[in-house]
Give the backbone structure.
Amino acid sequence: MKKHNYEITVAWTGNEGNGTQNYTSYNRNHTITANHKYGEIKGSSDPSFLGDKTKYNPEDLFLSSLSSCHMLWYLHLCSTHKIVVNSYVDNAIGTMEETKDGSGKFTGVTLQPKVTITDAKMLEKANELHKQANKMCFIANSCNFKIDHKPNITVS
């Protein structure tokens, strides 16, 4: 079996002079970088946890990882089944629930890809391939909650 290793650097940029003296003495801003990538992702925490709403939070990035992994597998499967996709946009939604101790976890995600294909005869197969993409997706295989799919496939 092949192994793939990934390296990422997360650097906190939110020290406002007093470090983490108390819960409100620092901001949650940080950068995410990796070698040989175009630049940095500016992150923070969710505004519910005193984060900057203009920056991506870990939950946003998690949901985008799941959505993009599914999309990439779906496009691959369509290409191998001779289905021509002209557009793909997913408006994914996820639910995270907090527990009494302040921790939390995602309890569900729904991917809602809007896909345009060129051949009406391939509509049924194009819909079926979402199930296969979910089985192949590395991120989905790492989750312990249900991932629903509500594809909307049209022909143009």
